[in-house]
Amino acid sequence: MERLDLDLSRPPPLPETVEECHRVIEALWRALGEFQQIQARVEELEEQLALGSDNSSQPPSQDSPKKRAERKGKRPTGRKKGAQVGHPGHERALVPAEAVDEVRHYFPHGRCECGGSVAVRGFRPHQVFDLPEIRYRVVEHRVYEGRCGCCGQKHQGRLPDEVPRGQMGPGLVAWIGLMTGRYHLSLREVEALLEEQWGLRFSLGAISQSQIPLQAWLGPVYNQIGEAVRKALIAHADETRHYRGRSIYWLWALTTDQMAYFLTHYSRGKGAAGELLGDFQGILVTDRHGAYNDHPQDSHQYCWAHLIRNLERIAGRKGQAGEDGERLLRAARLTVHYGKLWQQSHYPSDRYRRRLERLKALFRRELEQAAQRHGDNKTGRSCRKLLDDFPRFWTFLDHPGVPMTNNTAERALRPYVIWRKTSFFSQSHRGDCFRPMILSLVETCKRLKIGVYQTLRTICAQGMAEGEVTFRLPLPEPQPLPVASP
């Protein structure tokens, strides 16, 4: 491209001929096009710098310190941290007398300084909680052998079926599973904690090998959770990265308020989503990931929190795109506001439903106008994609009781994300299978308010004694959705 050599310290000379004028105009026209390209690139880079968890799929842990401060949205009050003067106190409740292990009595002196006798009329309880001295328990099983005095045939005793063939009992195997699956400790940390707390020394390989039978024993309960969650009327689905060494896999989750089912897969596509959902026929709540779109449109709800983040990104652009994004963002936030009010009214309110119907019409109209106004640029393509997905955002209107966000699935994946960051990922196919099994049990027990350790111990005891686990979780039956008044 021809460039003009101009001395900016003084005005350029005026062209003297028509040909010179044409050359100057052509050079300026090319320079203008180049400037527009540079300006578009600068705007794109500025938009990328402004990305955060509030306007993209970026996790909050990757936000900059400035973004984290803005996300909190609280102004400093000037008060010190901690409890404020005058706040109501919260004291630990006393345990009942039958639950106390030891009672010690402290009486006042029998005589007062004035010479009178002191009569005891009551006491003030002061309970102290402490941990006992911890020591492991060892049971030695002696298997005797002998020979027949007549024929010399050798005879040997036999261990009962309930005695483990290895050196780890059900309590220890369950404890290792709890430390890894519930508290996300690495195997080396489990090895160190065993020696520090219990005085037990097991090799890293032995601790890893203990997960092999536990994985087999977890199978029936894991399948029970998967079958039950696929029969639910409403379920939430989401996925996150799962690593095996340097290879990237995916951990998928299908959850309800009472159950959580996890699955590892090499793919993030529709095949993996189909394997996760199985024969699920209920209403599915997801983000806008296209792998779930084989599910019927009239029973598929998109997450409004994800939509708002997408609109935040459009609203952060300059010019007409930003103005259109602001209008769409206001309509989306109003929809979520009135949707919550409608849900809190338990759905008989026609007033909130009429407002939601009007917001639905307004939102579509704004999207259509923005798509037409911006043509084939980035904002126009985003608006047309939202129009294609439009029915999936409003399933909650046709099926009251369906949540507007996918928070249930995201909260279920959060413990795994933390575990992934604090460990060396998975190193084998066995680890890929074990993690979703233990996570499914742990997260389901938490939702059912059942002790994870006692559940694991029961499963391990049955597996060691009987070779078959008959234990099943008390999973709830599907409940019907609320019905809106006509």
Automatic annotation (TrEMBL):
Residues 68-82 have a biased composition (Basic residues). Signal peptide: none annotated. Residues 47-94 are annotated as: Disordered. Residues 165-431 form the Transposase IS66 central domain. It holds the Pfam family DUF6444. Residues 53-63 have a biased composition (Low complexity). It comes from the Bacteria. Residues 11-92 form the DUF6444 domain. This is Transposase, IS66 family. It comes from Methylomarinovum caldicuralii.
